[in-house]
């Protein structure tokens, strides 16, 4: 028997101003995407911007539904659209930002478990890490270096 500890590294930026010019521009696209969120039930608007290796940026926002489970998170809207438009292009970075009608979101909004699983699929497929930049509407920005970092022991095609 052996116990194992898993760890991973995050980079925490004090704000948008600390990001590189490219990352700042990508996050600005996620902020813009947030404005097209359809979130009449949660009043929580999320925007995502997916940067591809070919330089294209594909955006998404959460799209809710009166039948709640039929809605979809911003990250999956964006990454599925990227997969649909550019099936063989590597995903480099996904920038995510969230805001709320009810409060100021000043802490980074981490992707839900379903979105982590969906993004892991592309990371495994492309055999290259997908970097994440996560933000609220203001405040710190967290960088994760790989989806597998935030979904340890994740399920992938190797089990099938
Ligand atoms: N949401 C996202 O878009 N991404 C996440 O990773 C977490 C949650 C959306 C889903 C729903 O429309 C709203 O935020 C509240 O859960």
Automatic annotation (TrEMBL):
Family matches, as SUPFAM superfamilies: Cytidine deaminase-like
Binding-site positions, substrate: 62-68
Broadest EC class assigned to this enzyme: hydrolase
Biological process terms in GO annotation: nucleobase-containing small molecule metabolic process; pyrimidine-containing compound metabolic process
Active site positions, chain numbering: 75
Chemical reaction(s) catalysed: cytidine + H2O + H(+) = uridine + NH4(+); 2'-deoxycytidine + H2O + H(+) = 2'-deoxyuridine + NH4(+)
PROSITE patterns, per database record: CYT_DCMP_DEAMINASES_1, CYT_DCMP_DEAMINASES_2
A Pfam family of this chain: dCMP_cyt_deam_1
Cellular component GO terms, alphabetical: cytosol
Gene Ontology terms, MF aspect: cytidine deaminase activity; identical protein binding; zinc ion binding
Keywords: Hydrolase, Metal-binding, Zinc
Documented EC number(s): 3.5.4.5
InterPro entries: APOBEC/CMP_deaminase_Zn-bd (IPR016192), CMP_dCMP_dom (IPR002125), Cyt/Deoxycyt_deaminase (IPR050202), Cyt_deam_tetra (IPR006262), Cytidine_deaminase-like (IPR016193)
PANTHER family: CYTIDINE DEAMINASE (PTHR11644:SF2)
Chain's role: This enzyme scavenges exogenous and endogenous cytidine and 2'-deoxycytidine for UMP synthesis.
Protein name: Cytidine deaminase
Organism (species): Pricia antarctica
Name of the gene this protein is made from: cdd
């Amino acid at each position: 028997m052996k116990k194992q500890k898993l760890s991973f590294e995050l980079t925490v930026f004090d704000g948008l101003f600390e990001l590189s010019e490219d990352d700042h521009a990508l996050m600005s696209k996620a902020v813009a995407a947030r404005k097209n969120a359809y979130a009449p039930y949660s009043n929580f608007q999320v925007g995502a911007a997916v940067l591809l290796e070919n330089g294209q940026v594909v955006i998404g926002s959460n799209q809710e539904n009166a039948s709640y489970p039929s809605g979809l998170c911003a990250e999956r809207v964006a990454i599925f659209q990227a997969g649909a438009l550019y099936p063989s292009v590597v995903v480099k970075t996904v920038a995510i930002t969230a805001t709320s009608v009810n409060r100021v979101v000043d802490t980074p909004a981490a992707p839900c478990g379903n979105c982590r699983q969906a993004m892991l699929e592309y990371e495994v497929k492309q055999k290259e890490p997908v970097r994440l930049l996560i933000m609220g509407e203001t405040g710190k920005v967290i960088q994760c270096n790989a989806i597998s970092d935030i979904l340890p022991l994740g399920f992938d095609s190797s089990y099938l």
